[in-house]
Each structure stands twice: as C-alpha cells, then as structure tokens.
Design goal:
This protein has about 425 residues and is of the alpha/beta class. Helix content is about 50%, strand content about 15%. Strands 1, 4, 5, 6, 9, 10, 11 and 12 form an eight-stranded parallel sheet that branches. Strand 10, helix 14 and strand 11 form a beta-alpha-beta unit.
Amino acid sequence: MRPLKENLYRAALWSMSAANLPRLTANRYSGIGAILSLHRVHQVESELHFGTRHLSITPENFRRMIMGLVERGYDFVTMSEVERRLHGDAPSTRKFVCLTFDDGFEDTYSQAFQICRWLRIPMVVYVATGALKRSFPMMWGIGLERLVLKNKEIQFRWNGTTQFLPAASVADKRRAFFLMVERFAAARPEEIRKASEEMRVRYGISFMELTEQHAITPAMVREMHASGLVEFGAHGISHVNLRLLDAAEARHEIAESRRDLEQVVGEEICHFSYPYGKADAAGPREYAMCRQLGLRTAVTSQMGNIVPADRARPHALPRLTLSGGYQDTSLLDLLLSGTLPRLATVLRKMTSARANLVHALISARRLPLPSFNGSRDALPDELADHVARFEEFVRPLRGDHRSDIAVLLNQQIGGAPDIHVRGHESILA
C-alpha cells in the first residue's frame, strides 16, 4: 500500500499531464537535451524494500522508456558528447538524452547494460569504488531493508546513543528505515563502518557481504567498457556527502576514486558524479575541486534540463532523476519537457526572502487576495514580479488542476516545508 503523500504526488503528476503542460512548456523550457539520473534496473521483490523501490525501474519499463525516446527522435549520447554539444562541437541539432547510472549496482551490468547493448544505446556509469573494490560497505541501504524486514523492533545505536525503533507494522518499518537512512546519509565513512559492524554483530546482517553480492565487479566494468557503449565516471570511494568532509578528505574521495577506476578500465576517467548531488552535498568548493583535478564534467542531482548556458558550469551540470516509485506515471514527460524543472525554479524564487514575505502575508490573511486576481498596484514591484512569474507558468491550467500544483511542488522540490498548499492555492486562485 502506497503512502498518502505518494498517492497525492502521483495524482498531481497525472493531473499535470492531463492539462497538457508538457506540450505547452516543451518549446520554451526543454533546453537542448537532458541527463537522466538512474540507479537500478531491477524488479523489486517486496513493497517493504523501501529504498530499492525508490531507486529501481523494472527492466520492462526501462526498455519501454528507451524505445519511446527512440521513437521521438532523441539522440542518445555519452557525457563526452554532452560536453561537445555544449561547446557547439557536434553536428547534430536534435535533442539528446544521456542515460547515467549512479553507484555501480550489479544490475547495471546484468539488466541495464544488456538492454542497452541489444538496442545499441550508449550509457554512462558512475562507480563508487569502495563498492567496486569491496573495501567499503556501501550497500548499507539494502542492509537496512533486511533489518526492518526481519525485525519487529530495532535497537539502533548511533554515536553512543541507543534508540529502540518499533518495526512491527508497515508504517513502523517505513519510519524506522528512513530514520536510519537519514543517519547513514549524513555520516562520515568511519561512522558508517562502525554502525555497519554493530549491525552485523547484533543482527547477523553483514553490510559488507551485501556489497559483495550487489555491487558491480571489475570484470563487469571491463566487459562494459570493451563494448564501446559504456563510458565510466567516478562517484567517490565511500559515497559520502562531500560537504561533510574537510577539503583534503573531499579531494581524496574524488581523486582516489578516479584513480581506482582508471586502473580497472585502463584509460583516463574524465567525468564525475557527486554522491547525493543536491545543494547540501555539492557546492562551489566541490565544483572547483573537480575543475582543478582536470575532470571535464561533473553532474549533480539538482533538477534541470541542459541549456546552452551550462557550458559555463560543466562541473555543476543538472540532471533529471527518474524515481522508481513513479515509473508508471507521466513523470518522464514532465521532466523532459522542462515542466517540473521550471516549477522547481519558480518555487525557489517563491521561497526567497521576498516571496516568504508574500506567503506570510497571505497565510495571515493580511494581504488582500484581490491584489493577486487583478491589479498588482498594492504590491512592491519585486513582489509583483515573483507572482507574475508564477502565474505565467500555471496560467494554462484549468481551475480543477491548480490545487495539484501545490501538492506537486511540495513533493517534488522539497526544501520549503514552511510553504503549504493553502498559500499556493491563494496565489493561483
């Protein structure tokens, strides 16, 4: 059974598609192409595999997605080709997609690569070399899934503090899983090692053995590279949030993972993917490191289509993330058309200091709503500009779809918990 928030998000996606938003926005906001971010091509065994379900697209849906993009005339390219197109060095003027896979799961080889090889489609794989070398328990997410699946209560010890997490019901298991994920994702490598070992001792679940079972191997990497269809990039050693590390440690994660991978493929590695990749995991310091190390491109997980202006920021390229939980919705169309990225941009503007002032006034009912429906003379110019941009984007929507915008924004973008549906509906009224 899906969580309520997920069902609301799914409904919002379908509603946005039914309103023909992708068709209305594609010419203006789709850019010159897109870098798609995926993790796994895998048939999920249980709805209780919360993390795997989020990361995975089924083999059939992956194949269908590729065939649909082929029929629409997209060029499939590598990151090296993305770089060339940004600099105008490629002859094609058709829109492109670059399929990128993060982490280095075994099914990137056994499923994604086999499909791409059969269809002669290039792909890019960013490998976390701690998993590749079997030197770091990087598949801790799978371990945490096993933990909540097998137990009705979990004794979770972190940095000297012990929590007893209920895990009897599905809702309890989901809460326990994501609480532990939050700790691991914000941890340093040594903290992950320590917690993983404690889980092995207490519950008999070895995160290191799970890494050995589920991570790509050097032999697989060499075979994929030899096919001529797969370009490899580095993804850190331990898949740690680089901004949690000091400069020397972060630089080591980038440079050493690159060297590790070069030893396997036998040629220079020119591309990097920041672990986690959001703004709180990669910023100007990390961009500068990649540039100084001579990497040609680096990708984030920040949502956006590729536009010509990205040639000025090759070490901070945006991607469009395909979430497994929404693979049977219109998510791909809403991403490629620029619909959701544009909404993300609008929301970021709306959550600036000036926009927060507007929201506070609306929520307190101190700003007359007619000001938004007619003349904006009562608003300062800069505030009226924010509202105008938002209305410009959503004007094509029918009234019965407008409330879905708010749900969609809160679910897709994140980072603005103080902005609620009511405020958005007031602006859209």
